[in-house]
Design brief:
- The chain is of the alpha/beta class.
- It folds into 2 domains: about 5-125 and about 305-320, 2-Layer Sandwich (Nucleotidyltransferase, domain 5); about 130-300, 2-Layer Sandwich (Nucleotidyltransferase, domain 5), CATH 3.30.420.
- The chain has helices spanning about 40-60, 100-105, 115-125, 185-190, 190-200, 220-230, 230-255, 265-270, 270-285, 290, 305-320; strands spanning about 5-10, 15-20, 30-35, 65-75, 75-80, 85-90, 95, 110-115, 135-140, 145-150, 155, 170, 180-185, 260-265, 295-300.
- The strands form 4 sheets. A 5-stranded mixed sheet has the order 3-2-1-4-8, with helices on both faces. Strands 11-10-9-14-15 form a 5-stranded mixed sheet, sandwiched between helices. It has a 3-stranded antiparallel sheet with strand order 5-6-7.
- β5 (about 75-80) and β6 (about 85-90) form a beta hairpin.
- α5 (about 190-200) runs antiparallel to α7 and α7 (about 230-255) packs across α9.
- The longest helix is centred in the C-terminal third of the chain and has 25 residues, at about 230-255.
- It is globular.
Length: about 325
């Protein structure tokens, strides 16, 4: 009897679930995107994930007998061993055994990891061919998430909270100490950039951003088009965010002496070269010369597929 040799990877977000089937050649066979609504509670999210997996089964004519593991990335503090999702603010979930609940629907091992950790595993394996030592992966989107690899291995921390750099307190210059400090993601995420743009628009400032908006939300693609057109308001607000990002990453590098920083997320995917150049400028001003001189700062080429590929690496770690 043929052994199961496929993986299902799930990237769980607040509004959508992206699921993928990967074959024994480490190729993505296909994907399914399933909308969800985190306001309906943890049970509804489980139902949506089950539906997403079943769609993959139906669409690509596979069954449980073909699947070695289901790897799941979740935006929050997770314990990969117990399966407990301790806190996922963007999902409105606390103290929920998401791994155990999903496991009830399938006779396949279910594996759990923080979403940026999972992306970091994918980046390490499929962009760096496992040839990376001390790396920080930073995803910039609705919030800011991070993942650390030390000596080539994911560092999860004492109680699995390592990498939550978005909750670090900084000020508008990127300093890590200030009486007026806010969270890193409150100042430099895509959400923060958009909030800044909306504040300026409310003051009557001129911008073409609304010409690129389809619906009521300013998305990364709209930001990119506005920047490409030379819009000063949007460009300045994004530069405020990238200045903080570079400064914070410089301070982290001074502290931890990492050798590689990988940027990802919707904003980076939409305007990678622009974001990368601006981040490097403030990074070089903030970092001490010795730890900063050999750091490679790049954008991920895997994009949204990074956590999907990370599912393979997670299965290799936990399925023997």
């Amino acid at each position: 009897m043929k052994k199961p040799d496929h993986i299902i990877s799930i990237d769980l977000g607040g509004t959508k679930i992206l699921s993928a089937l990967l074959n024994d050649k480490n190729e993505i066979v296909g994907k399914v995107k399933q909308p969800t609504d985190s306001s309906k509670g943890a049970g509804f999210i489980i139902e949506c994930m089950v539906a997403s997996i079943n769609k993959l089964f139906q669409k690509y004519a596979v069954g449980e007998k073909d699947i070695k593991a289901i790897s799941m990335g979740v935006p929050g503090t997770v314990n990969p061993i117990s399966g407990l999702l301790a806190n996922a603010p963007n999902l409105g979930i606390r103290d929920f055994n998401i791994k155990g609940e999903l496991q009830k629907s399938f006779d396949i091992p279910v594996l759990l990891e923080n979403d940026v950790n999972l992306a970091a595993l994918g980046i390490k394996k499929y962009e760096f061919n496992d040839n990376v030592n001390n790396m920080l992966v930073v995803f910039i989107g609705t919030g800011i998430g991070g993942a650390f690899l030390f000596n080539g291995s994911i560092y999860r921390g004492t109680n699995f909270f390592a990498g939550e750099i978005g909750h670090m307190l900084v000020n508008s210059s990127g300093s890590l100490s200030s009486k007026k400090a806010k969270s890193f993601e409150a100042l430099a995420s895509r959400t923060a950039m958009v909030n800044g743009i909306n504040r300026e628009l409310a003051k009557g400032k001129e911008s073409n951003i609304l010409e690129f908006v389809n619906g009521d939300k300013i998305k990364s693609s709209a930001l990119a088009k506005s920047v490409a057109s030379g819009d000063k308001l949007v460009t300045n607000e994004i530069k405020k965010g990238t200045k903080i990002i570079g400064s914070v990453l410089g301070s982290i590098t001074t502290l931890l002496n990492i050798d590689t920083i990988v940027l990802g997320g919707g904003v980076v995917e939409a305007m990678g070269d622009f974001i990368l150049d601006e981040v490097k400028k403030s990074f070089n001003k903030a970092v001490l010369p010795e730890p900063g001189k050999n750091v490679k700062i790049v954008t991920t080429h895997l994009g949204d597929d990074a956590p999907l590929y990370g599912g393979i690496a997670l299965a290799e770690e936990f399925i023997k």
